[in-house]
Amino acid sequence: MVNKSKVFVIIALVSAVIGCSSTEEVNEFDKTLYSGKPIDSLTSEDAPKTEIEAIQRGDAALQTNNIDLALYEYIRSLSFKDGTKQADTLFTVAQIHLRKSNGQLAERALVKSLEYNPSHIKSLELLGVINSKRGLNDEAIVYFLRAINSDQERLGSTEVATSYVDMNESIVEALKYDSKSPERSYIGLGILSDVNGDLDIAKRYYEKALEINPSSSKAIVNLAYSHYMSGNYYLAQRMTNRALKMDPNNERAINNLALIYIALGENRQALSLFERNMDTPEALNNLGYFLILNGRSEEAVPYLQQAIDKRPSYYKVANENLERALSDIRSTNKQELEN
Questions:
Q1: What's the total number of domains in the chain?
Q2: Using one digit for the tens of pLDDT, what is the confidence trace for 81-116?
Q3: Which distant-in-sequence residues (6+ apart) come within 8 Å of 309 by Cβ?
Q4: Given 212, 233, 258, which residue is the final one in a domain?
Q5: Are residues 208 and 123 part of one domain?
Q6: Which residues lie closer than 8 Å to 103 by C-beta, 6 or more apart?
């Protein structure tokens, strides 16, 4: 005959074990990663039973543009101790925060992503982009190089992106790539190289980005600008026009093409391009300003005078530029007389 008291004890023990096990499998919701509508107002559904179910709920919410619910579900997926998708999920969380203009939370999510996977290429790259936009160039360089090295590891390559100062054209050319390689890391390093006046290696970075993605208008625009800075104006013109065919409203490409036309002495075409992104007085002032920078102050004067005439009360900056142009002309004339 079965002893009922023993059965009761066994059931109680099993229940206790199950209860402890389920408690250990789930962490608390990480509120430090969330910012949005009150959590209680987001959903009345039962809690997800697995990491994948929570991620799928997040994906569904994101598809319907329910951003806060998506964020909530993705963060809930992180609570499962047996999860395997944390690094990817935290990258998605960071993207949502950037979409919501929450830069600090985005950075927090990316750093946490690297705790799960220190070689997570997309997180490393996005941290580079964020730091670059903040003007933290040294930090940006570190993240971009780490992203590239992680990509080399993914591709089974023995090539290494060394420290920024030791990088050269041959090293960049030797780096392996495929369509999944971190295009923005190469572009980011190219831009920082341009800023430092290292135009030749900047071009190699942009060319590598174009090998990864031949349709990258951003890489083309930046490569064209490097050629402009190197004095290769006609090549820069062709490349910028190519970018504008791909992206006709690319503001940077339009302004860069205007600078190229100024360098080629085609001032009226430059003015027409400036006017695509700004009103006429501002366009006239811009043209005058860049002519001064190009050492052509006499050409700048009539454009600056037109800018002032069209909006005298507004264009304090045009008056200052006109004064600068006239000062340059007086200085040049004085030197010619003395010689």
A1: 4
A2: 999 999 999 999 999 999 999 999 999 999 999 999
A3: none
A4: 212
A5: yes
A6: 97, 130
